Amino acid sequence: MCGIFGYLGRRNAVKTAIDGLKKLEYRGYDSAGIAGVFQGQIIGCKEVGKVEGLEREVQELDFQLESAIAHTRWATHGKPSQINAHPHYDNARSLALVHNGIIENHLALKKELVSQGARFVSETDTEVISHLIASLYKGDLLFAVRKAIGMLKGAFAFALIHKDFPDQIVVVGHESPLVIGVGEQEMFVSSDPVAFSEFTHNVVFELLQPINRCLNGNDEVAVVHRDTFEVFDAAGQRSEKKIEKLTAKFGTASKGAYEHYTLKEIFEQPQTIRSAYVDRLSEEFGTAHFEEVQTEMPELLDVERILILGCGTSWHAGYLGAYLFEDMARIPTQLEISSEYRYKNPLVPHRTLVIAISQSGETADTIAAVRELKAKGTNVHGSTLSRIADACINMRAGPEIGVCSTKAFTSQVVILSLLCLAMARMRNMHKEDGKRFITAIEDLSAQVEQILETAPHIEKIANKYAHHENFFFVGRRYMYPVSLEGALKLKEISYINANGYPAGELKHGAIALINENCPTVALCSNKGTYEKILSNIMEIKARNGPVIAIAESGQKGLEGIVDDIIWIPEVIDELAGIPATVATQLLAYYIARKRGTDIDKPRNLAKSVTVE
Ligand code: F6R
Question: Are 491 and 498 in contact (CB under 8 A)?
């Protein structure tokens, strides 16, 4: 996790680095720091909390640097504190270093370094790198860094400044992203080009794909000067790197009239859902196509099994996808949480299509799972894990700034529905059924719009229940993944303990928790199991549990039974997950707002989870 930024050039280095860091806060925001050389000395400043705290501090101190490295942290080793914040130094303060990733053998290295006299001040794994490089440095910094990275295990990217080389930043990207920005007499280093894209679009990374913006995979070291850079391979030989043009558009994110990015992104969904399907539907043939995977389409015909991988919200989208592929395309589909799958030594039969789902394309667990499959010789069709996947379908949802994922989920579900439609039509689905499914997809935007119009009603319900500390979300079939997603949203942004549960499973144990202080959100939209969930609601009511139903207009039997109802439009079961999820997003948002939490940047989280 964590965001790294570095700057050498004609601008104010401190201000440029702080502005860059603000754009990297999606990678973590529990502490931030900056360091560099000033009048021959390494000096630094660190603060607990968000980058704005660091900004205030450097302004008060009138902190100046000639060149700067900076960092925004998501704690892995050691709690968020000033001492654990990056940059980290060696004992002589000859160097400062910022790091993203995990040094897996840090304990063994620390023991060795301590025996040589190093004094550690933090609980981080990062500090090992600073002491290690300092211990190996005898005047040749490049040699010391090369030697050190040969001794480090794990995925890591780091940038360092040494006081003997005030006009250089040395950078390494080993299975963690790091990109160099080449400006006019100025150079940038960053975990993500978004942080310097307003200054230059000339970048150096191996591939222009969002996932592996790593400088290298071969332990290369880059030395960045004020107006140029050099890259050296593991043997110390210079390697040539192409300067490429950024093609991605980086708009300046703005909340507009909305109080939070999260709310804005919830309200963007009628457009983002449309963008996910527009140009991808063939009304005449009742099917879907993706320009990104068109050439591979014949391969899709041979697919006999599907494996879906993802984490968190992306895994929930995959859950709905798995139901769809089995129901509509009649293809056996396995769903796996990336972080578990990786360590399974899985059986992957021939002709398995792997769909890796990720909003960020940087989730370490999902990348690692896909790499594991690649190592097994599997033919991988991924979504955003572009570099390692054979094909990538873009969500076209625009940047998601709120840490909790909202519009990405609905876009992912639309795309899975389209892919499923295409595969179903290649198999047994009738053209007329395909056409009907297309109409249902095209209706989604307007249906989501209708739910958004009921926001004031949902807010009233949210205010009524916001004081509760425990919630259940229950659903059956297509509503079960929605219950998981609804519960996750509530947990993330309101810090309420919420459990997503298959409604029929409650009676096998969890119903023991139901009482008048534990409300249940009952997701009723799956028409095929409506009678069944009504019985489950009765079971909850019989134990004094308050029930908020999210139900489709026309569903009878709820009024007078449940405590509150959020009505949503009628949608076919296969797509009902989309509108129902939007209702749960609004409910979670307004509960969190009532509780006064930091909705866009909830505690302990980061937008991109780049450590395993
Ligand atoms: C929840 C959330 C996370 C992510 C998960 C996977 O709101 O945002 O659960 O869904 O970390 O991230 P991606 O989709 O970027 O791989």
Answer: yes
Contact 75, 30 (CB under 8 A): yes
The phi and psi torsions of 181 (rounded to 5 degrees) equal -105, 130
Q: What contacts 400, CB < 8 A, 6 or more positions away?
A: 265, 359, 406, 407, 408, 607
Residue 254 lies in a domain: no
Where does residue 205 fall: left (phi above 0), alpha (psi -120 to 50 degrees), or beta otherwise? beta
**Cβ(492) to ligand 1 under 6 A?**
yes
Place of tokens 């894990």: 385
DSSP state of 218: S
Catalytic, 607? Answer yes
Collapsing DSSP to helix, strand or coil, 589 comes out as helix
Residue 138 gets which letter from DSSP?
S
pTM of the model: 0.82
Do residue 289 and residue 413 come from a single domain?
A: yes
Strand, helix or coil for residue 67: strand
Instruction: For the beta carbon of residue 107, count every other beta carbon within 10 angstroms.
Output: 12
- The reply to whether 342 and 474 lie within a common domain is yes
Q: Are 26 and 68 in contact (CB under 8 A)?
A: no
Check residue 84 and report its DSSP letter. Answer: T
For 555-582, the pLDDT digits (tens) are: 999 999 999 999 999 999 999 999 999 9
Residue with the smallest CA separation from ligand 1 atom 16 is: 358
Does residue 612 lie within any of the structural domains? no
The alpha-helical segments, DSSP class H, found in 33-180 are 51-61, 106-115, 126-136, 141-151
Instruction: Give the residue carrying structure tokens 């990297």.
Output: 24
Q: What is the CATH number of the domain that holds 214?
A: 3.60.20.10
CA of 403 to the centre of ligand 1 (A): 8
- Pick the atom of ligand 1 nearest to 489's CA: 7
Span 56-90, pLDDT tens digits: 999 999 999 999 999 999 998 999 999 999 999 99
Instruction: Using the predicted structure, report yes or no on whether residue 466 has a pLDDT greater than 90.
Output: yes
Structurally, the chain folds into a number of domains equal to 2
2 is catalytic: yes
Bridge partners (DSSP) listed for residue 564:
548
Residues 445 and 590 placed together within one structural domain of the fold: yes
Q: Which of 27, 192, 311, 340 to mutate to test the pocket of ligand 1 (most atoms within 8 A of CB)?
A: 311
Test site for ligand 1: of 27, 261, 338, 359, most ligand atoms within 8 A of the Cβ:
359
Q: 607 CA to middle of ligand 1, Å?
A: 7
pLDDT 10s digits, 216-252: 445 789 999 999 999 998 788 888 888 988 876 665 5
Is the distance from the beta carbon of residue 384 to the nearest atom of ligand 1 less than 6 Å?
A: no
| Omega of the bond leading into 87 within 30 degrees of 0 (cis) | yes
In the reported structure, the alpha carbon of residue 151 is separated from the centroid of ligand 1 by a whole-number distance in angstroms of 32
Cis peptide before 546 (omega within 30 of 0): no
Identify the domain containing residue 580 by its residue range: 261-595
How confident is the model over 508-544, as pLDDT tens digits?
999 999 999 999 999 999 999 999 999 999 999 999 9
Residue 321, number of CB atoms within 10 A of its CB: 26
pLDDT value at residue 382: 33
Residue 360 CB–ligand 1 contact under 6 Å: yes
